[in-house]
TrEMBL record:
Highest taxon of source: Bacteria
Sorted UniProt keywords: Membrane, Transmembrane, Transmembrane helix
Organism: Gordonia westfalica
Protein name: WD40 repeat domain-containing protein
Entry keyword annotation includes Cell wall biogenesis/degradation: no
Transmembrane segments: 187-205
Species lineage: Bacteria, Bacillati, Actinomycetota, Actinomycetes, Mycobacteriales
Amino acid sequence: MDEIGERTLVIGSGADITALGTIVTILQERGVYAIPATSLAEVAAPNAAIVAISPALIADRELLDTLRSWDGTRLVPVRVAPVGAGEVPAFLRELNWILWDTADIGARNSSLLTALHFDLGRYRDAQGLEAQAAAWVAADRDPHYLIADRKAIADGTPAGASAQLAEYLAASERASRREWWKRNGRWVFRGVALLGVIAIAVTGWRTVENLKSANTLAGTLLSVDDSADRADLQALKLGGLIDQQAANGRAVPDSTYGVLMQAMSHPWDLGVLGYTRNAAINGFVVGDDPTVAISADGEGTLVRWDLSTGAMTDRRRLTDSSLYLVDATPDGRIAATYAADNTLRITEVSSGATVNAPASNVAHLQISDSGTTMAYHGSETLTRLTVPSGARQPVTRMVGSYDAVYDLQGGPGDTVWALAEEDGDLVAINAASGAVAHRSALPTGKIYDAAISPSGKQLVAVGDDGQLWMAPVGGRFTPTGLAAPRSVSTLVLDNRGRVLLSAPVSGPQVVDTVDGATSRVCGSVSTVDDFSLSTDGNSVICSARGVGVLADLTEVTSAPRPPALNVQSSRSAAAGLASVRLADDGVVHVVNGSTRVDLRPSSTSVVAQSGQALPWIPGTIFGEGRPTAVALTPDGSTVAIGTSAGVVTEIDLPADGSIAFAGRWRPHNRPITSIAWQGTNQLWTEAHNGTWWRGPSCAGCGTSIDVLFQRIRDRQWVCYPAETRDIFTDRTRSTFALKPCADPIEATS
């Protein structure tokens, strides 16, 4: 809950009401009672308020006068539209702004919550270097705000410097060093100048390093919590902290490792696609090749992406108008778009050859697998567009008018499936032929959304009873018992019976209707405008607020068991000098050489005979539930324990006879019956209903920093935008080999 226990006002001009609503939604999802406000007449000063910085706010003198009078209110400025810092009143300008247009949405949301609850990073009433650091952040870390004189870095540091000030000083030192070399590099071999530079450089560097040592631990732990939104950033921050402290010869508490292990236990997204602040990317499509995606954006360009690197490989300008909608054939050969100039386009991606058709108020479009048929709807009318072989102009024909059109899906050949509501019935139509494949009464008196699978064989609907209803095409709907929010805004059904949905209250989720498990997906964003799944069903791109988030579905849904998986007995195992046995009373007996440990279901910590304790982890030693299965790696170096609640915990057994917590994973919430490893970094678990789940193994992470850091490298994003890389030190970027996202390429006509 938020700290005031009542409300957090999100204040701004009426012209920014959309941005205010977005901020309110994000805060409410995280337990903060937030309400938008565009007028402060007779409003008492709250303890905390978010202020949406924009040109419209700067012009609203009445709002600014009221905000200036709230001396006791914690003000959190959020820049929602471009504005010069010099135009903003000093009482807001001196504060640290949150930049709402950043591509790093997870970091943005985290900063918002941190600023509401902690003074660290806010700097109200700060003086001297602290104020300079605040101004630097408020100006997008503009290098012109950095300290030019390295002597000031060495001599002007206050005793209680913050982590952000340390970052500011470190950036100043790096910039100052670069500037010096630009001016004086040709004199580098002159002895007296060289000695003087070394003396000054060492002085500044030592000051910065001391600041890092004193403040980085507290600052990092304060900004890292158990949120799954950006688990990769949490792991990188903590891994960088551990690495830096080790380089400084300083120990890191076990609790730090525990928080890092928590970050490693969450599913991680694979990366984000986005390249411009000037125009949003309005849609992504991924198909047969899971390493290739196609997008359309507000600059009128169609882009092909390499998902293994996050880089553009081709960019073609179709129009000077914004492209609002996009779809493509599974082979990526043909793309269909709708633009602000009220034109539909069918484009051969490789050559750019395009046929056009006028249209207006198009809400959704879909192209068939063959690329010769497209269906679109708007104003409750469903229309078919076909392109005869060799024709320059497409042929359009209205399919019908409906009370609502819920979904369009491209099918085999020329098929495009449409799911609509007509006279109280749910109707599935083949838009290519106009044939009705399904008609039935709504599963409940009212439905909030519905979808059809690309195969045209399954239907799903969100009923007014708050659950998912499923039906085979041509059959009857039955309730699944799986919850679905009535506020659903996006709903997709794939051919494997998995449902992807997004709602403000729950965020993006994937519901495995076969296993009955619901998992968060695309954790970097809070809501999703559309989902695009690869043909193999292993990955998805979530389009959200102008960027695309790439996620791995194989870590959050069940998967076929690998044919060569070596599954041991679920009750006991032995290898080398180690063994593990699950007793009938639920106690797990572990032997590692001469060390014997009994792990009890209610234990919150364990001390072996040698005195070695497991690092801090939350809850009981098994996470949740009672042990139901155990396993041991072939070399006997790691034991895994599964529970009745679907939690699996890995514990390392090093050669010295000690024990060490290695990792934890919760792929589902059903009892685990079997556990097995595949390779060095995949852990497979079987649920009691026979489904198999794959998760990342961290075997060896508890005993080897090298292994732990390699696991972080293995799971990091395909690339990181510059603004995300900039939050890490040079050492962290180097240690974890953070890959920068490539610059956009120029569009061709």
